């Protein structure tokens, strides 16, 4: 009998330890479950982070209730498990409550301030009704279309959705919305289907060694893309990639994969081909976008998932990787997308997308660049998990001279960004002159591409 009692106690102790380990494992997830990396599973994450800690709390409470006074170790482990489970549940509910409070503050903010700051944000979406609510409140400058927004829909259905958003905008007397997408060709063809899936631009270039035929092939390729995009209602394409192909291979790079998307390693070829591409896109009424300054061709890390650095000197970049950017920014109306890599030779603390030394110092200062600058997606870990965080990064970006902040993957992050901007504006931390200059650039860009 005594042996059986000891065995039961041992089993209860082991079970208590397992429950404690499980509760402790839930805590870090509960503190970070609203991370963009969990965006697609967020509803299930919320359900799990409520149900599991609740069950653990009940189990640990029962263990405390049924344990005898002399079973001190079991009691201690049960109390620790109860505390950990309660912490996980409390953190989960606190984050959810915080999100809804911030969302409410944004949606009920002063309409004039919301419009003034909203003209600097482009957002992705899952729920069309939610993005319509933002357009109705004049709280955004545009939307980003990707696979999740067109899957299973016909061209006519997508056209109708975009027209309904633009119609709201027109009735408000505001500039048209930027309807943006990633339609590079090859692996990055977010709207194919229903649009035609084309090969990578590099493949077109490589199959036409004769320059005259190459130019015609590139223009035809870009025109096909642009005509389909324009017919759909898209007026901003995040292409072409003008990063040089330095053939850097990272087996853990799941998203960036520049070597598979770049046109060439030769900066002259990239500048020439991208120039033809942008000219053809603009003829169809679609703005092109040069990406990703300062060039990701030499970068090993994937900024979607981690911090990344570019160690190359400014002189080397000027002679090579920056040639296409500098040349095309000066002679086209292309937007320029800023990547989230840190340019260590200039600013080792902040990614380029919100670095004042790079944006104000090099692009707006040394280069006298007065075109539209848009960030890569601020949902990426290189920004979200930066020391500034997505909140302060947004403030730094606009103050440095960025025109548009992109929040495309995790649309919930829009509310966090806008709340930070509203508070910064209220506290006088947003530079009025920088915003005024940006407003002029955006108004100029919204004008007709063709004379």
Note down, in words, how this protein is organized.
With 451 residues, the protein is of the alpha/beta class. The chain has 2 domains: 2-105; 111-445, TIM Barrel, CATH 3.20.20. The chain contains 17 helices and 12 strands. The strands form 4 sheets. Strands 6-3-2-1-12 form a 5-stranded parallel β-sheet. Helix 2 (42-66) runs antiparallel to helix 3 (72-107), helix 5 (128-136) packs parallel to helix 7 (155-171) and helix 10 (267-283) packs parallel to helix 12 (323-331). The N and C termini lie far apart (96 Å). The mean pLDDT is 93.
Write a brief caption for the model.
The protein is an alpha/beta fold and 451 residues long. It is built from 17 helices and twelve strands. The strands form four sheets. It has a five-stranded parallel sheet.
What's the helical proportion of residues? 40-55%
Count of DSSP helices? 17
How many individual β-strands? 12
Low-confidence stretches: none
pLDDT averaged over residues: 93
* Cα separation of the termini: 96 Å
Spatial sequence of strands, sheet with the most strands: 6-3-2-1-12
Structural class: alpha/beta
Q: What is CATH's topology name of the largest domain?
A: TIM Barrel
What is the CATH C-level name of the largest domain? Alpha Beta
The CATH homologous superfamily of the largest domain corresponds to Glycoside hydrolase, family 3, N-terminal domain
Could you tell me the strand content as a percent range? 5-15%
Q: What CATH architecture of the largest domain would you give?
A: Alpha-Beta Barrel
**Overall form:** elongated
Instruction: Domain count, please report it.
Output: 2
Radius of gyration over all CA atoms, rounded: 26 Å
What profile does the largest beta sheet have?
5 strands, parallel
SSE sequence, one letter per element: HHHHEHEHHEEEHHEHEEHHEEHEHHEHH
